[in-house]
Design a protein that fits this description.
Keywords: Lipoprotein. This is Gliding motility lipoprotein GldH. InterPro entries: Motility-assoc_lipoprot_GldH (IPR020018). 20% of the residues are buried. The chain has one domain: Jelly Rolls, CATH 2.60.120. A four-stranded antiparallel β-sheet has the order 1-10-4-7, with no helix packed on it. Strands 3-8-5-6 form a four-stranded antiparallel β-sheet, with no helix packed on it. By secondary structure, the protein is mainly β. The longest helix is centred in the N-terminal third of the chain and has 17 residues.
C-alpha cells in the first residue's frame, strides 16, 4: 500500500514539474484596487544572451472587474539605461460577459502575450514595469482605483528553439 502511494506521488511530481519546463522567470504581485499611479515592478536577473525568450503578462481578475478590455502601459528598462515602452490592450471578456482565462469560481487567470523571441543581449539586471491605463469612455482622466484585478504577474519562457 505504502509503495503504491510513493509510486503515484513520484509520477504526479514528475508530471507537475515537466509541465512547466519552459519557465525561466515567473512572479506574481498582489494588487488591491490598482491605483492608476501604482507601478508593478519585476526585477529580472541576467539571462542567457544567446537565447530567445517569450514574455507574458499574467493577470488574475474577479467579478469586480467591470470591463471587457484591459489597457496596460509597460516598460522594459535595460541595464545600460535604454527603455522600451508599450501601450497594450487585452480582451478580458466575451461580448456576452463571459470571462476569458482559466480558473474555477470567481477568479480567472489570463496569460497574455507580451513579446516573442526577445533576446536580452546586455549583461545585467532588467526591470519590467506595468501599470494600468484604464479610462471610462469619454473621460480624459484615468480610473483612479481599478477594482477586480487581484494579481499582476510577469513570466519569461524559453522558446521552442531553446529546448
Amino acid at each position: 500500500m505504502r509503495s503504491n502511494f510513493i509510486l503515484i506521488f513520484t509520477i504526479f511530481s514528475l508530471l507537475l514539474c515537466s509541465c512547466d519546463s519552459k519557465r525561466v522567470y515567473d512572479e506574481y504581485k498582489s494588487v488591491d484596487e490598482w491605483n492608476k499611479d501604482s507601478i508593478v515592478t519585476f526585477n529580472i536577473g541576467e539571462l542567457d544572451s544567446l537565447k530567445a525568450y517569450n514574455l507574458f503578462i499574467d493577470i488574475r481578475n474577479n467579478s469586480k472587474f467591470k470591463y471587457s478590455n484591459l489597457y496596460l502601459i509597460t516598460e522594459i528598462q535595460f541595464p545600460k539605461g535604454k527603455v522600451i515602452s508599450d501601450t497594450l490592450e487585452y480582451k478580458m471578456a466575451e461580448p456576452n460577459g463571459e470571462w476569458l482565462g482559466t480558473g474555477f469560481g470567481d477568479v480567472k487567470e489570463n496569460k497574455l502575450w507580451y513579446k516573442e523571441n526577445v533576446n536580452f543581449k546586455e549583461p545585467g539586471e532588467y526591470q519590467v514595469n506595468i501599470r494600468h491605463a484604464m479610462r471610462k469612455n469619454g473621460d480624459v482622466d484615468g480610473i483612479d482605483n481599478l477594482e477586480g484585478i487581484t494579481d499582476v504577474g510577469f513570466r519569461i519562457e524559453k522558446t521552442t528553439q531553446n529546448n
